[in-house]
Specification:
Order of helices and strands: HEEHEEEHEHEHHEHEHEHEHE
Helix content: 40-55%
Shape: elongated
Largest sheet: 6 strands, parallel
Strand content: 15-25%
Distance between the termini: 48 Å
Oligomer: single chain
Strand order of the largest sheet: 6-11-10-9-8-7
Radius of gyration: 22 Å
Length: about 280
C-alpha cells in the first residue's frame, strides 16, 4: 500500500485537533483567563532527548484553531533528527493562546515524534537490506492516520490503513470460507482490484496461497529456513511478508532471508513519549 502523505491528511489533521481541543479546553481555559487578553509573549519548544521530529502539521493546526494570531517557526522538519536540549520551534503571539494551545500541541508532537523515533531505530537495524518494514493496525485509537504518517517519517512504511482497503485473509477467514483457494476467489469476486493477502503457517499453505493467486503471502512465525525456502519457491510470483514474534534481536536475520516485507506492531504500540518542554517569555 502507498505511504500516507500530508497532502492526503489535511481534513484528518483538522479533525484530530478539533477533538483534542474539545477534550482539553472544553468550555474555555479558565487559568489562561487570568492573563490580560492583550498580553503578548514568545515561546520556544525544546526536546530533552534525542528524537526524530514528527507532528508539526498537527501542532500548527492546534495553534491556528486556538488563535490564528500565533506565529510558528519550525527550526527542524518532520523526519529530521533532534539532539538533547535542542530548540526546534519558536512561537509568538497572544500569551493566552500560547498557554491554552501548549498541552495539545505538545501531546501531538511527543506522541508522533516517539513513533517516528522508534520507526527510525528499527529502520536502522535493517539498513543495507532490501526489506521494507511495515506498520500494523496496533495504533492509538483515533490517531491511526497520524501514527502511520509518523512511521513514514522514521523511514518505515504503511501496511493497509484499516479493514476496508485490502484483504488480509487469516486462519478463521479461511476456515469460514472452506479453504484458501475459496477465500481468495471470494475476495476477487467481492472487490476486484483490492489487494489480497493471505496469512499462512506452513510452506504447504504458502503453495496453496500462491496457486490461488494471492498478491501477498504473510509468513506467520515460520522458521528462518522456511522463510528462505518460501522466497526460493515463490520466485517473485507474490510478495512475501514475515510477521509474528519478530523482535529487534531477530529483525536483521529475518530481513536477510529475502522476504519483501516485515510487519511489526512495535512501531506504533510500544512507544514512549518524547520528553519536551515549552518555555514562555513575556
Amino acid at each position: 500500500m502507498p505511504n500516507l502523505t500530508l497532502d492526503t491528511l489535511q481534513q484528518t489533521i483538522i479533525d484530530d485537533v478539533r477533538r483534542a481541543l474539545a477534550e482539553d479546553v472544553g468550555s474555555g481555559d479558565i487559568t489562561a483567563s487570568l492573563i490580560p487578553a492583550d498580553r503578548l509573549a514568545t515561546a520556544t519548544i525544546l526536546t530533552r532527548e534525542a528524537a526524530t521530529l514528527c507532528g508539526t502539521a498537527w501542532a500548527d493546526e492546534v495553534f491556528r484553531q486556538v488563535d490564528p494570531a500565533i506565529t510558528v517557526q519550525w527550526l527542524v522538519k518532520d523526519g529530521e533528527q533532534m539532539q538533547p536540549d535542542q530548540v526546534f520551534c519558536k512561537l509568538s503571539g497572544p500569551a493566552r493562546g500560547l498557554l491554552t494551545a501548549e498541552r495539545s500541541a505538545m501531546n501531538f508532537i511527543q506522541t508522533l515524534s516517539a513513533t517516528a523515533t522508534r520507526s527510525q531505530y528499527f529502520a536502522s537495524l535493517v539498513e543495507g537490506t532490501s526489506v521494507r518494514l511495515l506498520d500494523t493496525r496496533k495504533t492509538l485509537p483515533g490517531l491511526r492516520m497520524a501514527q502511520k504518517y509518523a512511521v513514514t517519517c522514521g523511514g518505515c512504511h504503511n501496511h493497509r490503513i484499516g479493514l476496508f482497503d485490502a484483504f488480509l485473509i487469516k486462519e478463521n477467514h479461511i476456515a469460514a470460507c472452506g479453504g484458501i483457494a475459496e477465500a481468495v476467489a471470494q475476495a476477487r469476486s467481492l472487490a476486484p482490484g483490492k489487494p489480497v493477502e493471505v496469512e499462512v503457517e506452513s510452506l504447504d499453505e504458502m503453495q496453496q496461497a500462491l496457486s490461488a493467486g494471492a498478491d501477498i503471502i504473510m509468513l506467520d512465525e515460520l522458521s528462518h529456513d522456511d522463510m528462505r525456502e518460501a522466497v526460493a519457491q515463490t520466485a517473485g510470483r507474490a510478495s512475501l511478508e514475515a510477521s509474528g514474534g519478530i523482535t529487534e534481536k531477530t529483525l536483521r536475520s529475518v530481513a536477510e532471508t529475502g522476504v519483501d516485507f516485515i510487519s511489526i506492531g512495535t512501531l506504533t504500540k510500544d512507544i514512549k513519549a518524547v520528553d519536551l518542554s515549552m518555555r514562555l517569555a513575556m
